[in-house]
Design goal:
Strand content: under 5%
Number of helices: 17
Number of strands: 0
Largest sheet: none
Order of helices and strands: HHHHHHHHHHHHHHHHH
Length: 551
């Protein structure tokens, strides 16, 4: 089910030459390939997956051995520095391997080393955030927020479904509940509360490898890392990692599906049907994990699908591709979809949060429903109240459409951005009349992610144009481009991951930091307090001072 986008120079059989040799271009061939080549390609992707997931576990495992008090700010800073040091050293080892591959045996294994290094950096980056969660929860068996808020409801509902009972909400995505319930049975004797801590850490760790592999359906290793993984790290979350993970996976999966739909008219029947079924199953699993992004993306994806449907080259095959995908989706998620269509009409969200009182056109930062103490919000901007970041985002939206007007990669993402924007304003415009919010502020994440991807795609398309001219005198070689890019991305992801890990370091300030703080103040099931409980005091529900920050 691997496809490559138009505009990416593919590596053809034989020695690379011209633009196709550029190491930042796509490594996938758009034409038919021998079975041996396909098996080799599949084996390499499996190797990348193995490296990425292994790298994602290294830092969390090492963080378990740190000796510090996670409630002490100096200890938190030391912990972040210790993780950063290990991240940098391990990452530099992979970069060094790429340098060695360039110099040894005429660079024969340079591309393989690049694949492995890119996958490893993606895994290490999310492993950094997971390691931060390990540090934040040192000494307590409870998940972030214990049994309060969403964490408590998820723990309760997972315990119910694991024991054959209905959950407290029929419309809540069932996949996280069943996963938590069965994981608790296998590893924690049915204790879903303690098991949720593990899955918060493992979910954050898996974020990088999963998004990297999803973008590998469309882009080469380094491009997938730079233009797919990096934007996703604005959304990585240790508290409920599955919802954000679905978003960052859904975008490349839907784009890859539109690309395959466009080519379906000339595809063979067997691979066509297999691809359709594969996309349907994958989308079904994502829908069962978190369905909100599907609602906000639907109109944009429908537009892209109609635009790129093979009306002239093969209507029957295009219909077969979509029909197979729909059938596979319904097999996996049809029952839950019927529940959503039935119960979703009567399920109302009356919980007004911090962001429901702010300008609906502002989406660039989400302070969550526990913002703590803030000043002016949204922050005042330089241009008519709009900040430079917003201006850059909208300029890149226009530039991406200009440069990639005929490319499904660009058009589909732009359509998803516009679709989420329209849905956001539609729901918000009815907020006063219905006195419901219907989670419209969650579109912040989709708008931000799609906007960042479009900015990255501008750089992607410009770099492709530069690659076409790499034979010009004085233009740097491809090896230097790869090594320089990996070094830059390593430092960028290390900095971003440190920031995202730091926002979960325990503190009694009403922001997300309160989540692990509460975990250290809840009495354990054996009656004892967690190791680092403040003043060695704890209670059944833990510190409830966070309630004073909720509007």
């Amino acid at each position: 089910m691997t496809v490559s986008t138009e505009g990416s120079a593919a590596v053809r059989p034989g020695p690379p030459s011209g633009p196709a040799a550029h190491a930042l271009s796509s490594s996938e061939s758009s034409g038919p390939a021998p079975r041996r080549a396909l098996r080799s390609r599949g084996g390499l992707l499996l190797l990348e997956a193995a490296v990425a997931f292994a790298a994602a576990l290294v830092l969390p495992l090492l963080a378990r051995g740190l000796k510090l008090n996670p409630l002490n700010r100096i200890a938190q800073v030391s912990g972040l520095a210790a993780i950063q040091l290990r991240f940098a050293l391990i990452g530099l080892l992979f970069v060094a391997a790429v340098v060695l591959a360039m110099r040894l045996r005429g660079g024969r294994h340079f591309d393989l080393a690049t694949r492995i290094a890119a996958a490893a950096v993606a895994g290490l980056a999310s492993g950094f955030v997971a390691a931060g969660a390990v540090v934040a929860l040192l000494g307590t068996p409870w998940p972030m927020f214990g049994l309060n808020g969403d964490s408590g409801r998820i723990v309760e509902w997972a315990h119910a479904v694991a024991n054959g009972q209905p959950s407290g909400s029929p419309v809540y995505p069932p996949m996280p509940l069943y996963t938590l319930g069965y994981y608790a049975e296998w590893f924690h004797g049915g204790n879903t509360a303690y098991a949720f801590k593990d899955l918060q850490i493992l979910g954050a760790a898996a974020f990088g490898p999963l998004v990297y592999l999803a973008w590998r359906m469309l882009l080469s290793p380094v491009r997938a890392l730079a233009f797919g993984v990096v934007p996703a790290f604005a959304l990585i979350d240790s508290y409920k990692p599955y919802s954000q993970t679905v978003l960052v996976l859904l975008v490349p999966v839907l784009v890859a599906m539109v690309v395959s739909l466009r080519r379906s008219g000339t595809e063979g029947w067997r691979p066509l049907l297999l691809k359709g079924a594969g996309f349907g199953v994958l989308l079904g699993v994502l829908f069962l994990t978190y369905s909100g992004w599907f609602l906000w993306s639907a109109a944009g994806v429908l537009f892209a699908a109609l635009l790129y449907f093979p009306w002239r080259t093969g209507r029957l095959k295009g219909a077969a591709f979509m029909g197979t995908a729909l059938a596979a989706f319904l097999v996996v998620a049809g029952r839950y979809l019927m529940v959503m269509l039935k119960e979703g009409q009567t399920t109302k969200d009356y919980n007004f949060r911090f962001d429901n009182f702010t300008d609906p056109a502002y989406y660039l930062m989400w302070r969550t429903d526990m913002p703590g103490k803030v000043g002016d919000w949204p922050p005042p901007g330089e241009f008519g109240g709009v900040g430079l970041f917003a201006l850059v985002t909208f300029v890149c939206l226009g530039a991406a459409i200009w440069l990639g007007l005929r490319k499904p990669l660009v058009v589909t993402i732009a359509a998803m951005f516009i679709s989420a924007w329209v849905m956001r304003m539609y729901i918000a415009s009815h907020m006063y009349e219905t006195q419901t919010v219907q989670l419209y502020t969650r579109t912040d994440n989709q708008l931000l992610y799609c906007g960042l991807i479009l900015c990255a795609l501008v750089a992607h398309m410009v770099s492709l144009k530069l690659a076409e001219r790499r034979t010009a005198p004085g233009f740097p070689g491809r090896e230097g481009a790869v090594i320089g890019t990996l070094c830059a991305l390593l430092l960028l992801l290390g900095t971003v991951s440190s920031s995202m890990a730091d926002r979960y370091m325990p503190a009694q300030d009403g922001t997300y930091r309160i989540l692990p703080w509460v975990s250290h103040t809840i009495r354990q099931q054996d009656g004892k307090c967690p190791k680092f409980a403040p003043k060695h005091e704890c209670s059944k529900d833990g510190d409830q001072s966070w309630l004073s920050y909720v509007r």
